[in-house]
Design a protein that fits this description.
Elements lengths: L12 H15 L11 H8 L3 H13 L3 E4 L3 E4 L4 H25 L4 H16 L2
Antiparallel strand pairs: 1-2
Length: about 130
Amino acid sequence: MQIIISNSSDVPIYEQIKEAIKGEILSGELVGGDALPSIRTLAKDLRISNITTKRAYEELEKDGFIVAVASKGYFVKEKSENYLKEEILTKIESNLESAVSIANTYNISKKEVENMLDTIYEEEEHE
């Protein structure tokens, strides 16, 4: 698991950690049952406080992505494929809403946005 944090970002460090782990779960890099590094280990690796790491893990647990097992640590929670797909679709929808908002602000037509989306899909297929 590779987590990169930025001290110069406006996003709090715990949130950066949370989003990095969440991204790995949604992408399938981390799957149900995978163990996460201990709070101390991750804090040491990232050179941050245990409290910051603990908060990131607590947020992930609250959001249903990981589970704490007494005396064993934190693990990726088993999820159904439908749940993961819904999370991914929600993320895509949020990004598309932002894109549509920008397009509307600058009077970019729906057709132009659709053409951009088609081009992006074509480029991804050829990589």
